[in-house]
Fold these 2 entries.
Entry 1:
Amino acid sequence: MIETISQKIERFYSLIRNYQEGAPETRYKSWEWCHKAFLDNKENTEEGNIEFLSLHLAFYLASWGMYRGSSYLLQRDYKAHKAAVREIIKPEYSSLWDYIPTANNIESTNDLLFNTENGLYWKIKNSYKGFDDETEEDESSDTLTTKILMGTFGCVPAFDRFLKSGIKCYQDNHDGRNTRIGNYKLTQSIEKAGGTAATESFKALARFAVEHRTELTVDTNFLYSPMKCVDMYFWEIGYEMDIAALLKNEKTKDHVKQKLYKKAVKLNYCNEDITYEEAIAQIRRLNYNE
């Protein structure tokens, strides 16, 4: 049976609890430290504070996978984030801190973030251009830009592959590519083709937060914003389905499958002492109306 929103969020918390019982050194706590650093220091424009926040942002992004592979950030130090930090702490964006969506503020918040000329999203994205002669490569992706907005304000879900996969699952359970939440179309992208304008996805997810406010509850020991909880919900779905996909993939090496299966059992995605096929079926039943 497909799980509720509250159950999915609780599963996300289980990742924190299962990794060293939520100790400060687990990477799943990195969001909390970065977000708190910005909340506590957002009114301080001194250069030392810009450096401090840039370091926090850099480590959070590294912890959340943005400094691996071919990422151009690997060629930069933490100072690459200073321009973005200076923009983020400007007072005109005060309404974005731990943003609480309502039916009356979705449009204005979307405009503050995604206005094609003055939106904060585009300003952050453009702040990573022009470090040297490789200007064409020095540009923030939609994943990086939304992870920055999530790690600082907690106002926009981070459009990484797990969240996008979670949205796809949600679409499959509803009206496919025509899925709408309220009046807004939900897609797997925050940007339209060409990267010059935003889709309606932020507004759709904000509307989701409005419609499911009572279900977006969290452990009282954690102060997570509504949009962070939305992020956790869709991310968790995508994470679970990724494990199922890897277990199904014939190219996945057996020792990797064994490790994934043990993780799935530990996180209560499936029962112990069953076949991979049975584990896949159990994970799918948690996420699909089948």
Note: Residues 226-248 form the longest helix (23 residues).
Entry 2:
Amino acid sequence: MAIVKATKATAEKALKAVDWAAQDALTDADIERQAAENPDAAPILTDRESAAGMVLALRARLKLSQAAFADRYGIPVGTLRDWEQRRRIPDQAATSYLKVIMREPEMTARALGTAAE
């Protein structure tokens, strides 16, 4: 497959060609149908199914190892590892907790008494 280099001008032209009103008018059902019809489309993941990527991205953003993240937020390291390796999917409560950590990592650590000094 050839490598195609995109320039800023090419990207701007592509963005101008998008019918944003039509995109905004799409319903969730439209999006799901289009994704199902496109063999190249990645599957649409639920929050729980995308938790592995969420945990990895969050740890990377916070620059924490598995052990440090687990200790800071009171999650057993084995559970964290299972989520990241997709052996287990976090339940709804754990998914909600991960969202809180994602949005307010320092506040969450302070509330737990595990914030870095």
Note: The mean pLDDT is 89.
